[in-house]
């Protein structure tokens, strides 16, 4: 079953989908501990990638717990809402194991920077993630 995103993946170019998939992988392996919940969420999440070579490459990043090298996101310069949706989707994957570790938060800040989102807005999203985790455990 494909993961449901806020991000309009169908409106993305192939390069944008590849960037988003690499960002998802980067979030999952950021803390060096890939949980079963994160792996399952990630596998469902990257089902929008149809290139089998890229899928294998993404799986290798996970298997070797290597964060993919990422550059700034290109596109949607006037559609900041879509960039914000990507951040929310990345946070969902990161907190699927009910933990938002310091290393994951650091990676989240890095990805926010690559998306051109102001640091204070990314920090607000991190606070939302922490609150969401509290809601999961109550």
Features:
single chain; 138 residues; mainly alpha; TerB-like; 6 helices; 62% helix
Report on the structure:
The chain has 138 residues and is an all-alpha fold. The protein has a single domain (10-137), classed as Orthogonal Bundle (TerB-like). The chain has helices at residues 14-29, 36-45, 52-63, 80-94, 102-114, 119-137. Helix 1 packs antiparallel against helix 2 (36-45) and helix 5 runs antiparallel to helix 6.
Please specify the SSE layout and strand pairing:
Blueprint: H1 14-29, H2 36-45, H3 52-63, H4 80-94, H5 102-114, H6 119-137
Helix pairs in contact: 1-2, 1-3, 1-4, 1-5, 4-5, 4-6, 5-6
| Spans of at least 5 consecutive residues with low confidence | none
Structural class by helix and strand composition: mainly alpha
* Global geometry: globular
Number of helices: 6
Please count the beta strands (DSSP E, at least 2 residues each): 0
- SSE topology string: HHHHHH
What's the Cα radius of gyration? 14 Å
Whole-number count of domains: 1
N-C termini distance: 28 Å
Estimated helix fraction: 55-70%
Beta-strand residue percentage: under 5%
The chain-level mean pLDDT equals: 89
CATH architecture: Orthogonal Bundle
CATH fold-level name: TerB-like
Describe the main β-sheet briefly.
Answer: none
What's the CATH class label? Mainly Alpha
In short:
The protein has helices at residues 14-29, 36-45, 52-63, 80-94, 102-114, 119-137. The protein is mainly alpha-helical and 138 residues long. α1 runs antiparallel to α2, α1 (14-29) runs parallel beside α3 and α1 runs antiparallel to α5 (102-114).
